């Protein structure tokens, strides 16, 4: 078994949740906050059998979309004063795939 940690934009999280349930994946969805934009996102914790990792990643890929956001440089560095907008590409999903030593349910 592996653990997928998938950080997705809030706009995609409901659709991802629906697709994962439909395809029989188990997961926990946590509210989270991006350190850079300081805006809400969702972190999905998924325990997934090795042979289903690719299928899980395909579901995540199909539900999560890249979006362009603009922030001012003063948003990023408040001490810099008002500056030009900076383009930032957010998402689709940031995924970490971790080994799981042991999995038990009681
Ligand atoms: P945020 O930290 O709010 O970052 C949002 C987007 O801002 C990032 O999109 C990236 O395009 C940009 N960005 C982040 N840090 C930057 C920096 N120092 N300079 C310039 N641009 C920067 P994504 O890369 O798609 O990341 C989306 C969210 O995924 C992040 O939200 C964060 O919550 C998470 N994330 C991304 N990389 C991570 C990592 N290495 N470890 C943990 N969480 C990560």
UniProtKB/TrEMBL annotation:
Pfam families in UniProt: CdAMP_rec
Domain of life, source organism: Bacteria
Protein name according to UniProt: Protein from nitrogen regulatory protein P-II (GLNB) family
Species, as recorded: Companilactobacillus ginsenosidimutans
Upper classification of the organism: Bacteria, Bacillati, Bacillota, Bacilli, Lactobacillales
């Amino acid at each position: 078994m592996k653990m997928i940690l998938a950080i997705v934009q809030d706009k995609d999280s409901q659709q991802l949740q629906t697709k994962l349930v439909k395809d029989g994946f188990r997961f926990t969805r946590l509210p989270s906050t991006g350190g850079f934009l300081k805006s809400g996102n969702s972190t999905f914790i998924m325990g997934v059998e090795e042979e289903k990792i690719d299928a899980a990643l395909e579901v995540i890929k199909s539900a999560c979309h890249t979006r362009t956001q603009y922030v001012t440089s003063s948003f990023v560095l408040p001490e810099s004063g008002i500056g030009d907008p900076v383009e930032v590409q957010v998402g689709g999903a940031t995924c970490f795939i971790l080994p799981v030593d042991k999995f038990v349910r009681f």
